[in-house]
Amino acid sequence: MNRANHHSPPRVATTADRLPPHAQEAEQGVIGCILLSPTECLLHCHEIGVKAEWFYDLRHQTIFHNLERLFLTLPAETSIDIIILQERLKETGNLEGIGGIPYLNELEKNTPSAANLSYYLDIVREKWLLRSVLAALTEGALKIDGHEGSVDGILAEVQERMGKLAEESIVQTERRLKFCLPEVIDDIEDYHRGHAQVRGLPIGISYVDKMLCGIGQKNGNLLVLSARPGIGKTALACQIASHVALDCDWFEPELDEKGQRVVDADGNRRNLRHHTAPVAIFSLEMAMLALVDRMVWQRAKGDKQRWRNGFAIKEDFDKLARASGEMAKAEIYIDDTPRMSIEELCAKARRMHRQYGIRLFIVDYIQLLHSTKNYKNERVQELGYISGMLQSISKLLNVPFIVLAQMNRDYEKEPNRTPRLSDLKDCGAIEQDADLVMFLYSPKLNKAAEEECDELLTNTYGNDWVKRRRINLLVEKNRYGMTGDCQLLFHKNCTQFEDWNDWMKTHGHKAPASGERLAEDRKLDTSDY
Question: Is the pTM above the cut of 0.70?
């Protein structure tokens, strides 16, 4: 065998017959977005450092360069439009070269919304980086061909070129404070007018909704719900899913086709009101049918255990029929794949968000997730990575994730205290990454409060009072609001939670006055708010 041939590297296939990486539709989308909303889109492009060379099509390079020059040279009070751009292209002799007015109109017409600018820019930038890497490597290959002498010079040039590309690949993400102020002031004005004070999705428990002002949107997207086994965290998650998919009304800012807030004749910014939202549940613990069965009984408020014991109640037939019909209309998507990896979950979440428009994800529960990376039995580090991935996907999709988590056994060693963040099992990163951490737990009532509670339940339900129990939902961490305890009543027969004060009012019992505490477990902590 020829020794030289044996050691020579395999020949690289030529790419002369292929076009460099590019995305024509994404480039057209970027220009179309700018034509729909020139000021906002060009400001965004200027902030992140978009260059004309990002575009592969020479027509798009020319159009963007002229738009950028107009943005930098025109007075602030002059708004760029397609007529001004046309005149600029005429002056520079480029109008016919880019396809004339018909092509500009086509770009604007074929772009659905200026709100998609960031998505299109990500694609265009990625293709530009790939072309730049390809050009650098091709240039290096040409210099290598026929080179004589030391290779240090070539290595230095290639390293310098790749280093510059690495620097350019980092997008400028900082933003001057004054450009953030208008949106903050809009929110303040909305609150002043009393518009849409519950900004996110309500969960259906009145006191919790008043405390959190909804979940998601500007109230944070990563929420952790933790409890010891058997307390009811899956039941509460199912109840929230049913409420969001069937009963909740929620608001979001109304935007026009250019991505700007819509203002009515009086100058008030309008909000869109929606009824219900699609929900996705990743159930790593319970099977899909068991989960659906629980939600139907919750909705019907029927006594499942009595039916299982052979004592079916006639009145429950209509309730179950009605609940089944309502649940059939709910846009709830369930995936009960066991031992799912976090990478698989994130990929499925992206697909479901795109395909079904999911507005709430529920993960039951985080300790059952694993990573495809090898952590060599370092479970704490692995859970830290999983927590970070959940935080990233919730920000990327801008959709709230309710992540269920187990509490460790140490909490049971001190029965007379409320839960704290350190009670989260196996991982301190969860409490750091989460925007909101809530604990379900059985409150330790003083003797007088316990007797009062038992008396109220006995007077209402008779011997069936044992099928109810007091449970508290403690908001221990809230990045965007106050923390404190919320009193709930848990109906064990149908695994449903109800606000304790709402229950007392409904059944004619005297509820505590405003600001009054009951059993010392209703105190709110606003010290960090």
Answer: no
